[in-house]
Amino acid sequence: xxxxxxxxxxxxxxxxxxxxxxxxxxxxxxxxxxxxxxxxxxxxxxxxxxxxxxxxxxxxxxxxxxxxxxxxxxxxxxxxxxxxxxxxxxxxxxxxxxxxxxxxxxxxxxxxxxxxxxxxxxxxxxxxxxxxxxxxxxxxxxxxxxx
Length: 147
What we know:
- The structure is a single chain.
- The chain contains five helices and five strands, in the order βαβαβαβααβ.
- The protein is α/β, with parallel strands linked by helices.
- The strands form two sheets. A three-stranded parallel sheet has the order 1-2-3. It has a two-stranded parallel sheet with strand order 4-5.
- Helix 1 links the parallel strand 1 (about 10-15) and strand 2 (about 55-60).
- The longest helix is centred in the first third of the chain and has 15 residues, at about 35-50.
- The radius of gyration is 16 Å and the shape is globular.
């Protein structure tokens, strides 16, 4: 008899991407706000037919919003049981360090960013150096490469 193995699946989704569906799409108009992230998360849960996402990414950053507010939003989603971990995409090293410091200052009650998902489409040469990136190692971040 053939043995069957169940594969574990990690559900990953992103929120906060600029809205490209309107009559004047603007890649530079931020949707990184509590209401937009909540809408995107609820939509992901609905479309995927699940109660939670394993890793929820900020698709973009909004440097006009303090990192503490952004981490608080994700922590709220985590405490509601809608996400297990959170991560960033297209954030600067300085913002990742700031997020790490904020999470550490919360006495271990907050998670740190789990991963970084940089956009390699404009910086393909960076892929060669990603595995030895000091910031990723120091912050203990995973790096997910989009190809």
